[in-house]
Predict the 3D structure of the following.
Amino acid sequence: MNAEPRILNTPAEVTLAEAFSASRGHLPGDAAVAAARAVAFDAFQKKGLPHRRTEAWRYTDLRVLLRSVPPAPPAAPASIASAALLPGLDRARLVIVDGAYRPELSDLSGLDGVEVTSLATLLDQGDERVGALAGRLDDAMVALNTAMMTGGVAIRVPAGLDVTRAVEIAHVTSGAYSVFARNLISVGAGASLRVVESFTGPDAAASVANIVTEAVIGDRAKVTWAKLQAEGNAAVHLSTTAVSIGGESQFDHLTLMTGASISRSQSFVTYGGEFARAGLFGATMIGGKQHADIMLGVDHAVPNGASRELFKAVMDGKADGIFQGRIVVRPGAQKVDGKMMTQGLLLSEDASFSVKPELEIFADDVQCAHGATSGEIDEDMLFYLLSRGLPRAEAETLLVTAFLAEAIEGLGDEAIGEAFEQVARDWLADRKTLS
Amino acid sequence: MTAVRSVAAGMNGQIKMLSIKNLHASVGDREILRGVNLEVPTGQVHAIMGPNGSGKSTLSYVLAGRDGYDITDGSIVFGGEEIVETPAEERAAKGIFLAFQYPLEIPGVATMTFLKAAMNAQRKARGEAELTTPDFMRRVKVAAEKLNVTQEMLRRPLNVGFSGGEKKRNEILQMALLEPKLAILDETDSGLDIDALKTVSDGVNALRAPNRSMLVITHYQRLLDHIVPDVVHVMAAGRIVRSGGPELALELEANGYADYVGAAAA
Amino acid sequence: MPAVQETVDQVRRIDVDQYKYGFVTDIESDRAPKGLSEDIVRYISAKKNEPEWMLEWRLEAYRRWLTMTEPTWARVHYPKIDFDDLYYYSAPKSTKGPKSLDEVDPELLATYEKLGIPLREREILAGVEGASDRRVAVDAVFDSVSVVTTFKEELKKAGVIFCAISEAIREYPDLVRKYLGSVVPTSDNFYATLNSAVFSDGSFVYVPEGVRCPMELSTYFRINERNTGQFERTLIIAEKGAYVSYLEGCTAPMRDENQLHAAVVELVALDDAEIKYSTVQNWYPGDKDGKGGIYNFVTKRGDCRGARSKISWTQVETGSAITWKYPSCILRGDESQGEFYSIAVSNGYQQVDSGTKMIHLGKNTRSRIISKGIAAGRSDNTYRGLVSAHRKASGARNFTNCDSLLIGDQCGAHTVPYIESKNASAVFEHEATTSKIADDQLFYCLQRGLTSEEAVALIVNGFVKDVIQQLPMEFAVEAQKLISISLEGSVG
Ligand SMILES: Nc1ncnc2c1ncn2[C@@H]1O[C@H](COP(=O)(O)OP(=O)(O)O)[C@@H](O)[C@H]1O
Ligand SMILES: [Mg+2]
């Protein structure tokens, strides 16, 4: 509709334009990267911040929600307190502070044979992996990330290597800064990897994080990936994961959203080879005035793919929970099996839940389905538990935990699942003391 | 204790476990229970029979304290205490157990987890110590074996994917573990084949005790061949319209409920 | 597998020229000059002898329309419409608005007869098989005017007003002024606003308090003239405790160019009233190469304004090159109910983007959506729907089921539901599936001796049964036949 170039006009858009012209001279990367940044920023400017009429962002209007943009982080951020996140989960840690990979804070033990590189280094050398997947996304915030990315980490698992120790990519924001990070993950044919992505920051800091991760998963590889968004309570979190999965690979992904004031997590999964299977799960737990939006795109570009999606959201207080999911089956992608389920549980009168589960199907020999429900705690189940003597609060907690657990357990990784379920239990325990 | 006893002791000196007087209950503007009077002495098993829709399940829900019913008149005295205002979970802790006509499926809650949560919640409410895990496991194992409840069933989410018979056995298993003072069994026989009926009845009979009362709700006489009651009541149109010995059940089996349906409507 | 392959092959060979209502009636007509301007709006208003307020209303809509742009969010693609290259008014010369049947041009009567729409009251009595005592009153709209309305007198006795809207504007101005535009405001959307400026005719129904309309009411729309837009406007009001069932049917000749149909339908149900609105839409879909056909851009909305009121939409959409249509319910009254039952069949190069909106505003409101989409040939078939509960809509309930069936591998079936709950006690359930006719189902039928066409027909009929059941009997038979014809090649 809007063919003519837009004029930047929200204060946030103006600040971003200023920030880009101020920083473009010293952002990492060779000449090709610099050119790509300019093209990307141009694309961002044409679109502007996503808004109500941007169909994919209809429930998260950044022109309204993003009032201002904080400054870039200081060059050498102060040392940061290591968060006591996910206790009991054994994992290697790659720490990224304010968008810069910090090897000295990281723990790479158990990652023998895995190549870990700072993204800034890759940009300076030029690497075809950067933008290979993100470049195909038609999304203003991804374009902005491409223009402004400062650093991050690249992980390469060679073919056939079975990495048993989980790897955490820990994104830590140290204060009210704008953070643009980019990560790359490549998993070779037949290899396996367990990833935990975490996002944390201090409360009361109005940070804006825009993080993009590109992952290429080879044929017959197996990747389990759990994302924990536990940012500080004033943060804005915008993250995008673009994944291409190879033939006969298995990709399981879980997004747990509990932090930030405004958050949007996007995942785009493209089937690059036949007989790949993806399990995509989500668990949102929010309260107060939190706004959490999960966007999922599943692109069955080839035949014989299977996908399972299960997204659960629990909203308390005045929180807004959102899920948009889209399964696309391209012409000729026969024998695709895609099932998507979304369920919202409203714990308070003022909470809200919006869902848009979409099927876009161009091949006839498919089995695709989606379902969605919204409601409060089931009265009959609650009574059953009460009649067995459970106190109301405990009965509610049990039901909510069970509700979320179904999605968390879908990941199929016991250790990670247990650690994430603990996050859910902690959230419920906090909730009780609040109310 | 003496004060409680003086309230609970009936005219004949028997101790009343449950005493319902003139109980009226409605949903919205529809009155379903229209003056139920019923006394169950401690240690006795009473059966309530009656046509479909007469209010049997409603009575069981009202006794267990389910929300959504307006108690417009009458009283429910349990163990000497008025409980009309008592919340469901406290009634459970006091010893009222309801085996549901349609046991709920609760996805995501493992049966084992649920049993432990329920047993400990009740113990806590009574001021007792929580069970240790080995103690809990032992109790479950013993009770489950008697009822043909397999370990595999116990690991599955509560009632999810259970057959009708498995659900009913699971209800009786809970009853065995929670050791209630008053057990209300709502159509526990429905949907059971003859072997399952025997298993369930044996389970129930094993739980008969001098300090425990039972209210067995059923539509058919055949359950009462297995669980022989002390008293049989007939419920029609929201009231107890007749009471008698076990022979009353046989009479109903022979003649049906037609008389009562007609009488109640008049 | 061979059976499926055969079906697919047959669908590929499909010839949409099966359209049997594609003839043209040769009749002289009175047309407004081509194009749209304030003068054209005044011309239409003057042709209809409208009062000044109506003209003002139209002009206001026209001025608003000039500031609007065409919506682009639907999944439909078509070349830009040149709104200045259309005729906005066309009427058979012989007819100056509805009058008694004896005065109607015999050519027109013959046209309706050929379409299977009996306009002679006596024939109607005899005509409907198996329902000899069931009668249907018909308002026949030919291009821009209503040519005749049957059973008017008998309905009047019951207090029911059933007439052309142009007549209602003159005869019942108070009712029209009170309700027209109260459900679909003149500013609602591009096509509704256009309609408000230039609507030509359509039906008006008023059922007074406590009256159960003694027969089914129906309107039959026919586009005949070349390059003519049809912009009908329907307004149905059911007063407290009233009941009415209304049927709508549509056809058009086969023409190479696309024709625009942009209707607005408004329903108002007051306390305890019920309106049942059924549509069998069979506009010309275009030929096998996607040439020609109707652009069906329609705004239909019902307002359950009163407590315990009920509005039920049932639609069978088989025609049109492009369908853009979302019959909706605003559930304003407490305990009001909305229903949407839909079958949308697309074949050839047809594009369907249709669905509903259920807006829950009142307490304990209920809605139910059953949508069955069948895509064949090279068509695209999209269900798009919104279910929302506002803050105050406690106890709201919705159940949605949308299933899509794909026949052949060149078509697309899409499901785009929006579910928005701002009330914890609102319970929404949505389920959707997309599949093809299962090989084992087909095999089962073949094994029992059915041909593959019969088998597909049988299975498709089973697929749409839930919706067909909602139609009045006369329509149900018709609808089933239509679906078969639309899927000609894959269905016997
Ligand atoms: N929640 C309810 N709302 C309205 N009517 C109810 C409700 N529960 C039960 N009833 C009605 O009350 C009557 C008694 O039901 P119920 O107690 O289930 O009977 P029974 O168990 O004896 O078959 C029936 O007519 C039933 O439809
Ligand atoms: Mg019952």
